[in-house]
Specification:
The complex is a heterodimer.
Chain A (H helix, E strand, L loop, with lengths): L5 H13 L8 E6 L2 H6 L1 H14 L6 E6 L11 E5 L5 E3 L4 H13 L13
Parallel strand pairs in A: 1-2
Antiparallel strand pairs in A: 1-3, 3-4
Helix pairs in contact in A: 3-4
Chain B lengths: L3 H14 L4 E9 L2 E8 L6 H6 L16 H10 L5 E6 L9 E9 L11 H11 L4 E8 L2 E6 H8 L8 H11 L4
Parallel strand pairs in B: 1-5
Antiparallel strand pairs in B: 1-2, 2-4, 3-4, 5-6
Helix pairs in contact in B: 1-3, 1-4, 4-6
Classes of the chains: A alpha+beta, B alpha+beta.
């Protein structure tokens, strides 16, 4: 069983990291989490996004947040990627597997995965 | 919804949208019955809106005129022979108590009862998206109670470590899943 006291260790450990975390966070990944998104499977998509951003060492570069209904419910789960100076990219019918690929190719590699975006079939 | 834990996530998102500072999610198992209660101190609903809130054609949505969150939760409870209630208060004067309580009961032995599913992921998702929210989660069974309070977590973590930092979320996930 985990204990609350382990949080004190996390606090100590992160003290050294905070200084480095001036983070630029120039990329915002937003997951639609209204009823439509949740029913379509947004919860595992969100957790895959959070996990992959951390795993691939992109925490300084990208943040993952949640929003309400984006308005095209039949294409949920939907993920939008906002990057300073670039056009918004909208991914539709998302899955945790797609999320992993998008984090490595788009967030890390800078190349949107167009086959999963709203413009493509 | 495939799992009751997804309904819970959806209903709690309503609380957050209603600017709740505190949200309390309590699950109680008694025999074959499961009671799910979501209490918030958000803005609350007018009596007329609260009375109609479980109707799909009542919604605060701006994207379309149908809102399925509460109707789906109500249906999930009633199709097991369970009950569903909403109690809501708006503040008339500053300092008045306000907020909403949604309670649903489920006969888990009923063939139409959705599984609870991954309640841990629902709690983690709420913390990830709302690191400043005061969230209390309690799961009471005949064997005892599991409880997580983000206020208590914050007290130990201090100001510098946000509750949605990866290390903290990983800890919370393991804590809720009862891992070593």
């Amino acid at each position: 069983m985990k204990s609350l006291q382990e949080l004190a260790e996390i606090r100590e450990r992160s003290k050294s990291k905070v200084a480095l975390r001036e983070g630029h966070n120039e990329i915002r990944i937003v997951v639609g989490m209204a009823t439509c998104g949740i029913a379509a499977g947004a919860r595992p998509v969100l957790s895959a996004m959070v996990e992959q951003v951390e795993k691939q060492g992109l925490s300084e570069k990208a943040t993952v947040s949640q929003t309400g209904c984006i308005g095209i419910c039949r294409l949920e789960p939907i993920v939008e990627v906002f990057e300073v100076g670039k056009e918004k990219v909208t991914y539709v019918k998302m899955t945790p597997e797609k999320a992993k690929q998008i984090v490595s190719e788009h967030i890390k590699g800078g190349k949107p995965v167009y086959e999963y975006t709203i413009g493509e079939k | 919804m495939k799992e009751l834990s997804l309904n819970i996530l959806d209903i709690a998102q309503n609380s957050i949208k209603a600017n709740a500072a505190h949200v309390k999610i309590t699950l109680t198992r008694q025999g074959s019955w499961l009671t799910i209660e979501i209490v918030d101190d958000g803005t609350g609903m007018s009596p007329a809106f609260a009375a109609a809130a479980a109707n799909p054609f009542t919604t605060t949505r701006t994207t379309r005129k149908v809102g399925m969150g509460l109707p789906l939760f109500k249906l999930a409870a009633e199709q097991t022979g369970g009950t569903f209630t909403i109690e809501s208060h708006q503040a008339v004067y500053e300092g008045d108590a306000h907020g909403t309580t949604v309670t649903a009961t489920f006969n888990t032995a009923h063939v139409d009862c959705e599984p609870l599913g991954d309640i841990t992921e629902t709690i983690i998702t709420l913390i990830q998206g709302n690191p400043d929210l005061s969230l209390t989660y309690a799961y009471q069974t005949e064997a005892g109670e599991q409880r997580l309070s983000t206020d208590e977590m914050r007290e130990i973590l201090g100001e510098e470590v946000p509750l949605n930092s990866p290390d903290v979320l990983a800890w919370a996930r393991e804590f809720l899943n009862g891992e070593e």
